[in-house]
Write a structure and sequence with these properties.
Helices cover 37% and strands 13% of the residues. By secondary structure, it is an alpha/beta fold. The strands form two sheets. The chain has a six-stranded mixed β-sheet with strand order 3-2-1-10-11-12. It has a six-stranded mixed β-sheet with strand order 4-5-6-7-9-8.
Length: 493
C-alpha cells in the first residue's frame, strides 16, 4: 500500500490565449468574411471568435475544476479600431465572462491573471506611454478589468501606467509583462537609445528579487514571445532580424540576462501571439517557455487551450495537456506534452527538454504527436504556408524552439540538413539573382551568335564592338542564308 505522504500534491491551472473576441460576429460589422448569420459560430478559418464559441470554451474551462486561470492576451478582435466599438466595450464584456468562470476556490473565487496583447492597443501594435491618448485607451481597459473584480485596486494602479503588474498569491507571484514594448513592430518605433522602455526591465528585476527574498516562485506571463516568427520564415525564407524576429535583439539579451540570473525562482514563462503551441527551451535564459495555443481559429488552427499541472510545493511543471474543439463547439481532451515528446519525467529539466525537442527533427512518431498540439489538438496541414510541412519546415519549427539568437537558428537548420539525406529546398535570393543575371547573359550571347551567322559574320573580335557598321551588319541577312533557311523549313505537300 502506498503511503499518502509520498503522493505529490499538484495544482492545476488553465492556460488560455488569443481569444480575439468579435462581438459583431455574424453581422455586417464583423471582422473578415463572417458577416452573415449563416457563418458558423463554432469557428471559421479567417474569422475571429464568436460570442457563442467564447462561452462554450469558458464553460469547458469551468468543468475542469482548475485553481487558476492565466490568460496570455489579445482580448480584442483584429482591426478593432475600425469596429466602431467603445474602447472598453469588449474588455467589459469579456471581463464579466472571465469573472463567472468557475475555479475550485482553493485560491479564491476569482483566481485570474492576464496580459495585454498587440491587438489590445489601438491601433494594432501602437503604444506610446507618454501619450495621453495611449494612456487613456489603456486606462479604460484596466478599469473594466478592475470593475469586474479581475484586478485589485493596487494591481490596476500599477497596470494602467504601462500594462505590466504582479499578481501575488501565497506561494506564487505571476509577473505580467507588456512584451509589446520590446517588439520590432511596436509603433511609434523606439530609438535604439531607449534601453528600458517604460522601465519594464527595472520592474521585472525588482519583482524577481522580491520573489527570491520571500522564498516564493514566479511565473512570467506576456503576449508577444521572444524568438522567431516561424510562420513568416516558412512563408518567405530567412531575411533579416527585423523581418523575422519578434523582439529587438538588445531587449532579448537584457531579458535573458535577468531571467538567467533568477532562474532559481522562475518556474515557467508563458506567452501567446503565434496561435501555435510551442515549447521554447532557450539556453540563454535557462527557463522553459510555453507559447499558448489560441481560441481564435483565424489562422486555421483548432480553438484550443491548455491544462497545466504544477507540483504544489515548488511550482515545478509536471505536464500540460491540450483541450480543443473540432469546429463543432465540443471540446475534447488531447495529447500532453510528455506524451508528444515521449518523456516520462516532469517538464522541469531544461536539458532534458532540449534533448527531447531536438529529437523532433528525426523521430517521426514524436514529430507527428507534436504536430497535433502545434495545430490545436489534431494535425492540420493548412496551418502551414502551402498547407504542407516539408523537411525545411520541420527543421525551422524545431530550431525556433531550441534557439532564440537569429544566427543560431539558421545554423541549427543547416546542421540538421547536414546530418540528413535531404537537401534544402530553399534557394537564397542572392543565388536566385545570380542565376537570373547569368541566364540573361547567356541568352544575349546566343542571340548575338545567331545574328552573326545569319548576316554572314564568322569572327567575333573585340574591336568590332566599337564599330557602328559592324552592329548594323548584324541586322542584314544575306540572300543565300535566306534561301537556306527557307529550304530547311520547306515541307513538301
Amino acid at each position: 500500500m502506498i503511503s499518502a505522504a509520498v503522493v505529490t500534491a499538484s495544482v492545476r491551472v488553465t492556460l488560455l490565449s488569443d481569444i480575439h473576441y468579435d462581438p459583431q460576429y455574424g453581422t455586417t460589422k464583423a471582422f473578415s468574411q463572417c458577416v452573415t448569420s449563416n457563418s458558423s459560430v463554432w469557428g471559421v478559418a479567417g474569422c475571429d471568435t464568436s460570442p457563442q464559441l467564447i462561452q462554450r470554451a469558458l464553460d469547458d474551462v469551468s468543468r475542469q475544476g482548475t485553481s487558476f486561470i492565466f490568460y496570455g492576451g489579445d482580448w480584442q478582435r483584429h482591426d478593432y479600431h475600425n469596429s466602431g466599438l467603445a474602447p472598453a466595450a469588449l474588455f467589459t464584456d469579456l471581463s464579466e465572462r472571465f469573472r463567472n468562470v468557475t475555479v475550485d476556490g482553493s485560491h479564491g473565487t476569482v483566481a485570474f491573471s492576464a496580459s495585454l496583447g498587440n491587438n489590445d492597443v489601438v491601433p494594432d501594435y501602437y503604444f506610446e506611454w507618454e501619450s495621453a491618448a495611449s494612456v487613456q485607451e489603456l486606462t479604460a481597459r484596466v478599469q473594466a478589468m478592475e470593475t469586474a473584480g479581475l484586478l485589485t485596486a493596487t494591481e490596476a494602479g500599477v497596470m494602467e501606467k504601462c500594462g505590466y503588474y504582479t499578481y501575488e498569491k501565497a506561494t506564487l507571484h505571476v509577473i505580467v509583462l507588456h512584451t509589446l514594448l520590446w517588439a520590432f513592430r511596436l509603433r511609434p518605433y523606439l530609438s535604439d537609445a531607449v534601453a528600458d522602455p517604460c522601465s519594464q526591465f527595472a520592474f521585472l528585476k525588482s519583482e524577481l528579487q522580491k520573489v527570491r527574498d520571500s522564498g516564493k516562485r514566479a511565473v512570467i506571463l506576456g503576449h508577444v514571445p521572444p524568438g522567431l516568427d516561424t510562420y513568416k520564415v516558412l512563408k518567405g525564407g530567412f531575411k533579416t532580424p527585423p523581418d523575422d524576429l519578434y523582439w529587438k535583439p538588445e531587449y532579448l539579451s537584457a531579458y535573458d540576462a535577468i531571467i538567467y540570473a533568477y532562474k532559481d525562482v522562475v518556474a515557467l514563462q508563458l506567452f501567446g501571439h503565434t496561435h501555435r503551441f510551442a515549447l521554447q527551451v532557450f539556453p540563454a535564459n535557462g527557463v522553459l517557455s510555453i507559447i499558448l495555443p489560441a481560441i481564435s481559429p483565424i489562422f486555421s488552427n483548432n480553438p484550443s487551450y491548455l491544462l497545466a499541472d504544477f507540483r504544489e510545493k515548488d511550482w515545478f511543471l509536471q505536464d500540460v495537456r491540450i483541450r480543443y474543439s473540432t469546429r463543432d463547439g465540443v471540446f475534447h481532451a488531447g495529447t500532453s506534452a510528455k506524451a508528444a515528446l515521449k518523456i516520462s519525467a516532469d517538464l522541469a529539466s531544461l536539458p532534458q527538454l532540449r534533448s527531447a525537442v531536438k529529437k523532433l527533427a528525426t523521430d517521426d512518431e514524436a514529430w507527428k504527436n507534436y504536430l497535433q498540439m502545434y495545430c490545436g489538438g489534431e494535425t492540420r496541414p493548412e496551418v502551414f504556408p502551402g498547407e504542407a510541412c516539408d523537411a525545411h519546415c520541420r527543421y525551422v519549427v524545431v530550431c525556433s524552439m531550441l534557439e532564440s539568437n537569429y544566427t543560431s537558428i539558421q545554423n541549427c537548420v543547416a546542421d540538421f540538413f547536414a546530418d540528413s539525406s535531404e537537401a534544402p529546398c530553399r534557394t537564397s535570393p542572392g543565388v536566385v539573382a545570380t542565376i537570373l543575371i547569368f541566364s540573361v547573359m547567356v541568352l544575349a550571347v546566343a542571340v548575338l551568335l545567331v545574328r552573326m551567322a545569319r548576316s554572314g559574320q564568322t569572327t567575333l573580335a573585340c574591336h568590332n564592338f566599337t564599330k557602328v557598321g559592324w552592329w548594323r551588319s548584324l541586322l542584314s541577312i544575306r540572300p543565300t542564308s535566306s534561301i537556306v533557311v527557307e529550304t530547311e523549313l520547306h515541307v513538301p505537300a
